[in-house]
Structure formats: C-alpha cells, structure tokens
C-alpha cells in the first residue's frame, strides 16, 4: 500500500456545500458548536489529569473517586470545575492547603481549546463520529505527552487501545456515521503499520550502530526485536503479511524450544539495508520494497507490544514480579518502544501521509531542541513522544497544507 493523501476537508464558508451533512442533522451555529466543544474539552481535560496521574502508578482510573494526593480527602463537585476551581482556591487544596500544580488547569485549557479547534476544522454535523474520534485521539496525545515528560514512558494503556480506536473509527468512515475526516480502514491499517514500522526501523538500525554492529546480548523471548528485524527483511521482498508471518513463526520456535533461537542481525538488518540496492538491480520498485519492509516490521512490532503488554499486566497482577522485570538488563536503544506504538496510533487515525507529516514535524522540532540543549549544555535525553504529538496535531489540522507545500517545493 502506498501513501495516500490526507483526506480533504471543507472549511470556512464552504462547510455547508463542500461536504454533505449527515442525514437528519441540522447545521448548528458555529459559535454554539465551538462553545460546546470548548466546555466538553475542559471536562475531558479534567479526566485527562486523572490519566496523567494514575496510569504511570498503575492505579485504577475510576476508583477511588478524585481525591487530594497529599491528604487523600475526597474532592467535592465544587473542587472539580475545570480551571475555575483552581483559580478560586488559588492553587491550593481546600482541605490541607497543599499546593496544586498549575499543570492541572493548563492541561484543561489545552484540552478545551484543542477540542474547539477540532470542532472548527471538522464540524460534527458534517463529520459525525469522525469528530468524536479525533477529539479522543487528541486526548491520547495529550495524556501520553504529559506522562512522557514526567516518566520517559508512554503507557500501553493509551497507545495500543489508541491503535484499535483508530482502526475502529476508520471502519465507520464509509458508513455515514463518520463521514470523512478519517482515513478508510485500509488507509488506517497501512498508516498504523507504516508509522510503527518507521520508528521501529530507526530504533533497530540506531541500536545496532550503538552496539557497534554487535549482536544483542539480551534478546527478547519469545518475540521482540529479532523477530521484528526478520519481518523487516521478509516484508521488503514478500510483503507485510509474509513479514508478519515470519516473525510469528520465529516466535513460535522460541516458545516451542523455550529458549532464544538467535537470528543474526547481520542477516536481517544488513539484508534489509542491502535490499534496496539489490531490488533496484533486479527491477523491483524501491518504494514497494520500503513500504513492504516498514509495514512488515510495524505489524510485528505492534504484535510484540500487545504480547508484552498482556504479559506485563499478568506479571504485575499475578506474581508481583514487576520490579524484577523492570530491573532486568537490556541492550541500548535508539528510541523508546512507546514512541513506536504511539506512531502506530497516529497512523491509525491519520493514515500514511498523516503519520509521515507527524514524524517529519517531530524530527524537525526535536532537532531544534537538541541544538538548543547543546548550546545550553542541558540534558541531552530527548522525550520524543511530545514532539510526535505536536506533529500529529499539525497533521490533523493543517496536514493537507503541509503536504501541498512540500509537493510544491519539489515541483510535483
């Protein structure tokens, strides 16, 4: 599957004519729509703060009810009004006077403004559930970014369900319930696999370079980086489905033998890098090779992520071995696996072109920050998740303009 253009959307005065409205839905006044979206976004922003606090700590997001983290006193409804409660309390807990971080109202404001922007670019009367899908997508981006800034991790509870949500809303795209604004299912699937595969390939090759082209000391079992690298190679030549099948076969061998049956990275990664040159000489389309390899690696990466998410949850709840698992030795990594899964979610919601724009904007923004950090001699550990999120927002709201500008720059 090749990159598809970001789906066009009507804006401004064209909203009522460029796209048929949903059956039985009247177009509401724009100010009312934006105000409603703003209020809804503020309320969701309050819940987003719950996700940001509780998910990294492994806490239930619905029980116990909202309470002060300092004195554990349950919060009354008057304490939970977005932004206004924080202002009226002057940033302190009503019950113990402990300071409340300004981040809480900031997250609520960002959520509210973003929901209003999404409603402006994707009016609900025209896009139906597509608008709802994009607002949920933004909440995933916002919560994931804030958690990444705090912990250098992006919880699987956000990214992997995010992939499923993106594919689910895409399946509704042609049903009249989500009329436009989102890719169709085939485009969403291609976007999810390409996004995850692109960042996974960067991680595989970058980590190989960091190890000075030596083999991994601590390979995952039964499925992990070795199987993903195999999927990259096989997918380039035989397509994503065969790449995913090769990864699953290797994982089955590992599970059956109860040990790691090594696949040399000189063969998989080295072979993948040579595939472009060999493919051109053999008359293969280089874009087809890249596309097949990335999507094969993306499929294997998302399957591995799902496996380890389930496995981690089982260890945490069933045996209490979580700390030992986290303290286990590991090989150096060029990119976090959470970023890979987040890119998969972005692709599921925005398609191939959308995820490529997202990654491009993220790399550009990250390069600027990296240069600034070098000049200021600050920490050089980059939290890439927030930049991916910024890129995704740019792609969601202005992606077609970015693609048009880039094509014009190339004279296409």
UniProtKB/TrEMBL annotation:
It comes from Deinococcus radiophilus. It comes from the Bacteria. The chain crosses the membrane at residues 30-53, 104-122, 128-147, 159-182, 188-210, 230-251, 263-282, 289-310, 342-372, 384-406. Keywords: Cell membrane, Membrane, Transmembrane, Transmembrane helix. It is a multi-pass membrane protein. GO terms for molecular function: aspartic-type endopeptidase activity. Pfam families: A24_N_bact (PF06750), Peptidase_A24 (PF01478). Its main location: membrane. Belongs to the peptidase A24 family. This is Prepilin peptidase. Residues 39-120 form the Prepilin peptidase A24 N-terminal domain. One of its GO terms (cellular component) is plasma membrane. It is found in: Cell membrane. InterPro entries: Prepilin_IV_endopep_pep, Prepilin_pept_A24_N, Prepilin_peptidase/N-MTase. GO terms for biological process: signal peptide processing. Residues 136-253, 262-370 form the Prepilin type IV endopeptidase peptidase domain. Gene3D superfamilies: 1.20.120.1220.
């Amino acid at each position: 599957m090749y990159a598809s253009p970001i789906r066009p959307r009507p804006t401004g005065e064209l909203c009522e004519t460029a796209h048929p409205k949903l059956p039985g839905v009247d177009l509401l006044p724009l100010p009312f729509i934006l105000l409603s979206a703003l209020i809804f976004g503020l309320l969701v922003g309050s819940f987003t703060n719950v996700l940001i606090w509780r998910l990294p700590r492994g806490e239930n997001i619905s029980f116990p009810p909202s309470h002060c983290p300092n004195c554990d006193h349950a919060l009354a409804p008057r304490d939970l009004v977005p932004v206004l409660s924080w202002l009226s309390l002057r940033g302190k807990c009503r019950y113990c006077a402990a300071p409340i971080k300004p981040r809480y109202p900031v997250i609520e404001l960002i959520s509210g403004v973003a929901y209003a922007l999404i409603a402006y670019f994707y009016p609900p009367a025209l896009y139906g559930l597509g608008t709802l899908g994009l607002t949920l997508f933004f909440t995933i981006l916002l919560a994931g970014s804030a958690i990444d800034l705090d912990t250098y991790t992006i919880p699987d509870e956000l990214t992997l369900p995010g992939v499923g949500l993106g594919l689910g809303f895409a399946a509704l795209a042609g049903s009249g319930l989500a009329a436009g604004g989102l890719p169709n299912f085939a485009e969403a699937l291609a976007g999810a696999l390409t996004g995850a595969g692109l960042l996974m390939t960067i991680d595989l090759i970058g980590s190989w370079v960091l190890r000075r082209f030596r083999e991994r000391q601590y390979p995952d079992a039964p499925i992990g980086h070795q199987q993903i690298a195999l999927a990259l190679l096989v997918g380039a030549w035989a397509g994503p489905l065969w790449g995913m099948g090769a990864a699953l076969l290797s994982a089955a061998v590992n599970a059956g033998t109860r040990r790691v049956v090594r696949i040399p990275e000189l063969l998989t990664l080295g072979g993948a890098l040579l595939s472009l040159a060999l493919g051109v000489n053999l008359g293969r389309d280089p874009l087809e090779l890249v596309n097949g390899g990335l999507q094969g690696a993306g499929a294997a990466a998302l399957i591995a992520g799902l496996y380890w998410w389930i496995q981690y949850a089982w260890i945490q709840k069933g045996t209490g071995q979580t700390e030992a698992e986290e303290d286990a030795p590991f090989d150096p990594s060029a990119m976090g696996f959470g970023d890979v899964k987040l890119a998969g979610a972005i692709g599921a919601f925005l398609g191939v072109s959308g995820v490529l724009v997202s990654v491009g904007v993220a790399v550009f923004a990250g390069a600027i920050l990296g240069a600034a950090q070098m000049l200021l001699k600050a920490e050089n550990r980059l939290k890439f998740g927030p930049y991916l999120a910024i890129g995704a927002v740019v792609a969601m709201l202005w992606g077609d303009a970015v693609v048009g500008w880039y094509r014009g720059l190339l004279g296409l």
